[in-house]
Amino acid sequence: xxxxxxxxxxxxxxxxxxxxxxxxxxxxxxxxxxxxxxxxxxxxxxxxxxxxxxxxxxxxxxxxxxxxxxxxxxxxxxxxxxxxxxxxxxxxxxxxxxxxxxxxxxxxxxxxxxxxxxxxxxxxxxxxxxxxxxxxxxxxxxxxxxxxxxxxxxxxxxxxxxxxxxxxxxxxxxxxxxxxxxxxxxxxx
Length: 189
Ligand SMILES: C[S@@+](CC[C@H](N)C(=O)[O-])C[C@H]1O[C@@H](n2cnc3c(N)ncnc32)[C@H](O)[C@@H]1O
What we know:
Blueprint lengths: L1 H15 L12 H9 L8 E5 L7 H7 L5 E6 L2 H10 L5 E5 L5 H7 L5 E6 L8 H14 E11 L5 H7 L1 E8 L6 E7 L2
Parallel strand pairs: 1-2, 1-4, 2-3, 4-5
Antiparallel strand pairs: 5-7, 6-7
The protein binds S-adenosylmethionine (SAM).
S-adenosylmethionine binds next to strand 2.
C-alpha cells in the first residue's frame, strides 16, 4: 500500500515537472491485468515492456513470467528506472534507460533473436508520425510470428492507425482507470 502511494507520488511529481509521462497517475490493477492477459507466459522467452513508468504493469508481468524468461523494459525517465532497478534486482529482469527510438539497437545488444510480446504503455498519440512509423517497423521486425503487441490508449485517436498497421485480435475497455482505457492486443498482419 505504502509502495503504491509512493509510486503515485513519484509519477505525479514527474508529470508536474513536465516530463513526457503521458498521464497523471500509474495504471490501475484492472488495466494492468488486461494488459498482461494476452501474453503467453508459458512459452514466452523474451518479453519487452515499453514505458514501464513506476512499474504498475511490470509487477503483473513479473508475477506471471517463468524464471527463464527475460524481461527487457525500456524507459526514458531516469527516476523511474532507478526505482525499478531497486524494486526488481533479478538477473532476468533488465531496465534500460533509453528511448524506444533505439529499440532495435537495444535488442541487438541483448542478443535477442525474437520477441514474444511487446507490452506498451507508450503515449503513442503524442509521438510524431515518423517516430510511430519507425517504432512500428522496428517492432514488426523483431516480433515473433505468433508474438503479440499489446498497447493501451486513453482515446480513439490512434484506433484507425493501429487497425491499419496490425491484426487486432482483441479490444478490451476498462473504466476502472484514470482515465478509462482501451487495450489493443495485436499480431503482425
Ligand atoms: C502513460 S505512462 C505509463 C507508465 C506505466 N506503464 C503505467 O501504465 O502506469 C508512459 C511511460 O512511457 C515513458 N516514455 C515516454 N516516451 C518514451 C520513449 N520515447 N521511450 C521510452 N519510454 C518512454 C514515460 O516516461 C512513461 O513512464
